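Quick start: load a record and inspect it. Here is Cytochrome P450:
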Amino acid sequence: MPPIDAIEPPPEWAELRQQCPVAHVRLPSGDQATLLTRYGDVRQLIADPRFGRTAEEEGGARIGAEGASTIFDRRDEPSPIPQSGAGHQRWRRMLTKWFTAKRMAALRPRIEAMASQLVDEMVAHGAPADLKAGLGYPLPVWVICDLLGVPDSDRDRFAYWSDTFLSLSRYQQAEIDAAQAELTAYMAGHVEAKRLAPGEDLLSDLITGADAAGAKLGTEALVATGKGLLIAGHETTTNMIGKMMAMLLSDRSAWEQLVADPALIRTAVEEILRYDANPGFGLTRYLTEDVELPSGVLPAGTTAVCSMAAANRDDGVFADAESLDLTRSPNVHITFGAGPKSCVGQSLARTELQVVLEVLVRRLPGLALAVPSARLRPVEGLLVGGLQEVPVVW
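Running the structure step on this input writes:
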């Protein structure tokens, strides 16, 4: 269900929410699944701690197109990180102290300096420029490298690895396997280097620290954590920066509203996260027992695809849901999930998006799209949604 263009959602979302909120769908693999599009159904299921993604379950539907498996399909490589239960929560608690409001406030000046440097370089090269390539891609890579203690010289190696990890149909399995072997080997070497010479980064802290019970993460879990943070901290935020600016600049009044009142930036970021019509695939859950949702009962053995983006447009929850309202508050969107498995790094993503807007509003108030929004091309073949480029002038 591709969006109508870079900004507008596919009309099927509204039709399904109204007429068929529990829909039978065929995945790129050819397997059957159930698609949920109403807010109440989606929120309840993604917040339920009993169920994990399909990769861990033998009966779960395969997602990726033939010849290419996604991160949801790798049953041959079970995650060394517990995907549910007490073990999962212990792992999360070891990470969450790195994403507190206090840490984000301390990190904010560093992110702002990075963003300002990238804007300087973009301006020096002159308009028109691709905002995604100049700012949206490098900034999250720089930030996550900083967090993981990865050398600056290795930043550029992550893009291809990240793409293959999130492939839906773009890459063949041989390409995916080779890239993932390279990433795993790199991260294993990085973990060992940090073990020998710990720094002040997240991985060093995980290596030297322990959970409340005194247990430490093993090497495989440390490698998986580093890979997971790299993928989650890079690809999704890179694409969200591009989409955010396309949404704001496609309607000059929205951008001009922010320029006139930068105090709206925090609520604007939340509304942009809710309004995103090109988010990618969604979250999968494999049901090991029957579940009663507001829209009906899902039987055990179901692979459910939870469309948070469709749920975020549910007019039963959000007044005037199809309008971009930069002042919307409260905003109970579920872009980052809900419950005990919600996104660990959501505070970092919010901080990066806010800083991008703060820097651009201050530095380039005359920013504008260099092409009509209808000509912006979506990313294809990946689990995450985005735009191939965001041409701008100023």
